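hey m, so remember when u said the tokens were messed up on ur end? i reran from scratch. heres the input so u can diff it against urs
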Amino acid sequence: DLLELRIATWLRPSPKALAGVRQDPHFRTNIALANFGETQAVTTLQVLRPYGTTVKTRAVTVGPLGFVQLDLANDLDVTNLDGGSVVLSCSPATCQVGAYASVIDAKTAEPRTNLPR
């Protein structure tokens, strides 16, 4: 059910993670943030290498009922990442931001969708 999927992907102040992201010559990753609420939300993204080292941290404002898509390389300046993760949280506590990662094969252009957990 679409509503269940949407609610399951909503971020809260306590972090959720998108695992299995890649940004290298073979794959690229886009992070999608959709604000289902009628108030502005600030989402914090922390990109981690497989062993937990932080590569980049960035706060992104998503307007009311808005959508933001971020490419790891172009928007976050992250390259050479295989098997990384993105830890996400949002504020205020009532935020209704949904998120997913789209990991795209450079050879076939086939995407894989990762949901936060």
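this time it looks ok to me. The two ends are 18 Å apart (CA to CA). if urs says something different then somethings off w ur setup not the seq
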